[in-house]
Amino acid sequence: MTTKTLEIDKLRKLLDEAGIPYESVIVPETLEPEIHKKLYGEAGKFRRNQVIYGRNPKEPVLVKFDAIWQCGSYGAAQGLIETYHELGVDSKGNPRVMTAQEAFEIIKADWEKERPEHE
User: Fold this and answer.
1) Which residues, 6 or more positions from 51, have their beta carbon under 8 angstroms from its beta carbon?
2) Which residues, other chains included, contact 9 with Cβ-Cβ below 8 Å and sequence gap of 6+?
3) DSSP of 64-111, one letter per residue?
4) Which helix (DSSP H) or strand (DSSP E) does residue 29 occupy?
5) pTM (2 decimals)?
6) pLDDT digit string (tens) for 41-91?
7) Do 48 and 27 form a contact (C-beta atoms < 8 A)?
8) Residues ≥6 apart with Cβ < 8 Å to 54
């Protein structure tokens, strides 16, 4: 029996392989998880399942990119991740829904832009 890899886990793996630092938060859904699972599929198992990139050390509430795949997130039913913050929203400030590869490319481009050439 094979288990499908979740997009948010694919994103974690891509970031790990590229050596790009991020924060990972996984909190299981504990209030009626079976009901949430029926409503949101596998994403219903999580109260919080999140990848956070680019936290500002001087302003810890500010981050550059935030990806979620959890109970109630946009795109969860399709297996896609919902994104927020400076690099994760559209031109109107609305969250976007994307694949792990799309999210990784956004983060990678920012990471490479921020790194000195010969670190």
Assistant:
1) 8, 11, 12, 15, 22, 23, 24, 65, 66, 67, 68, 103
2) 100
3) SEEEE-STT-TTGGGTPEEEESTTTB-TTS-BEEE-HHHHHHHHHHHH
4) none
5) 0.86
6) 778 788 899 999 999 888 888 999 999 998 888 988 888 999 999 999 999
7) yes
8) 63, 64, 65, 85, 86, 87, 107, 110
